[in-house]
Specification:
It comes from Loigolactobacillus jiayinensis. The protein has 379 residues and is of the alpha/beta class. The chain has helices at 5-16, 26-36, 98-114, 134-140, 200-218, 256-276, 297-309, 327-333, 360-378; strands at 44-49, 52-57, 65-71, 120-126, 151-158, 166-168, 171-174, 176-185, 189-190, 225-234, 240-241, 244-253, 280-286, 293-295, 315-317, 336-342. The two termini are 26 Å apart. It binds ligand L5K734KM.
Length: 379
């Protein structure tokens, strides 16, 4: 009854074709429910919460609950992979590998729906990892309360690791992030009369430049941080002075203290620009649940030991990464471990060309089935 490689490949290709933006994963949820309905249901209980799906696997002699979290949302990216199973949703793509994540989760669930564990297991198919802290939302609305896991685990694909390799580390795996949304408002006017207007292209450009000094001048060089401004919209035509500029970006840091320090510098610079350019700034710094992903010492030691002991698993000790994950929130509430699953690609996460190696699915399922069986017996 456990899903076969051919079935998992088909599931992956189907999911790849129906990417949806966070909190709108209706088709994805319907597809997941359809697949889950094909598993033996004897010890499964399925619950829907908006676009999230929670599945409890009731153990034979439960003492604890082991949690597995997968994210289900996609990105507003126009796919350019040329794959025969390309996204059917214009402007949307699984460019962060959540289609692989879901396939691994379904494979794992199909195994434990057939082989009953001793302890309970909770499978959380979570929306909105990319845009709206889906994990934090579910936790805070009490969706996990009845089935709260004692430990929680999750993975993320890694294009830079060989297919199926497992990458992990003690301590921080992923950075904490914080979105920057800055809107500058001045006075529009004719290009020929700058003295009668208040140009937000110039104010915005100064903001972009001054932000570059944060990492070079305000971050301890022994530590690290990133501030990327990925979006700048201002103006409509070359001979009109723009009265507004919208600039969006993201902060990354490996500790919450550093994240907050950088947030404060962004705030101060934005206010300084507003003062010196005599304009208004509306600044929204939004961290949500994107805390640093801090792996728990106990669960991570057990996980790494299992990975290293199995000759069929390629285990790699990885460095912390500046990618973010709203798993950071769940892992701040529930002890657990996150790890990378290699998908061997020349492209980065979020690239319109990303086409993860599908061979990673079986290997991810094998690694986690092995670990969960050992953990289930040990606790
Ligand atoms: C793995 C990955 O790429 N995660 C996203 C998480 C989004 C964080 C948030 N929306 C932000 O932009 O700060 C990432 O961009 O790292």
């Amino acid at each position: 009854m456990t899903l076969t490689t051919a079935e998992l490949t088909k599931i992956y290709q189907d999911l790849h074709q129906i990417p949806e933006i966070g909190l709108k994963e209706f088709e994805t949820q319907a597809y997941l429910l359809k697949v889950i309905a094909t598993f033996p249901q004897t010890w499964l209980t399925v619950k829907k919460v908006a676009t999230a799906t929670l599945v409890l696997v009731s153990g034979s002699a439960p003492h604890k609950t082991l949690g597995w979290r997968t994210d289900i949302d996609a990105l507003p990216v126009q796919e350019q992979t040329g794959l025969p199973f390309v996204s059917k949703h214009a402007g949307m793509m699984h460019a962060c590998g959540h289609d692989i994540h879901m396939s691994v989760a379904l494979g794992l669930l199909s195994y434990f729906a057939t082989e009953q564990p001793k302890n309970n297991m909770l499978f959380l198919f979570q929306p909105a990892e990319e845009n709206a802290s889906g994990g934090k939302r579910l936790y805070e609305m009490g969706a996990l309360d009845d089935w709260m896991p004692d430990e929680i685990y999750g993975l993320h694909v890694n294009p830079q690791l060989p297919t199926g390799a497992i990458g992990c580390r003690q301590g921080t795996l992923f950075a904490g992030t914080c979105e920057i949304h800055a809107h500058f408002s001045g006075k529009s006017g004719h290009a020929a009369y700058p003295h009668l207007a208040n140009d937000m292209v110039v104010a915005g450009a100064q903001f972009v430049n001054q932000i570059q000094t944060i990492v070079s001048r305000n971050v301890d060089p022994i530590q690290s941080g990133v501030v990327t401004l990925g979006q700048f919209h201002a103006g409509t035509i070359g001979n009109v002075i723009s009265g507004s500029a919208q600039i969006d970006g993201t902060i990354r840091a490996l500790t919450q203290v550093m994240n907050q320090h950088i947030q404060q510098r962004v705030r101060t610079i934005a206010e300084g620009i507003a003062l010196s350019y005599d304009c208004q700034v509306d600044l929204d710094l939004h961290q949500g649940g994107y805390y640093p992903v801090e792996n728990d010492p106990t669960t991570t030691a057990a996980f790494i030991k299992t990975m290293q002991a199995d000759p069929a698993i390629e285990y790699v000790e990885t460095e912390p990464a500046m990618t973010g994950e709203d798993f950071g929130f769940l892992i701040s509430k529930i002890h657990g471990t996150m790890f990378w699953l290699g998908v061997d690609q020349p492209y980065q996460l979020h690239s319109e060309h990303l086409a993860p190696h599908v061979g990673a699915i079986d290997k991810g399922i094998y690694a986690m089935t092995t670990y969960f069986k050992q953990r289930d017996a040990a606790i």
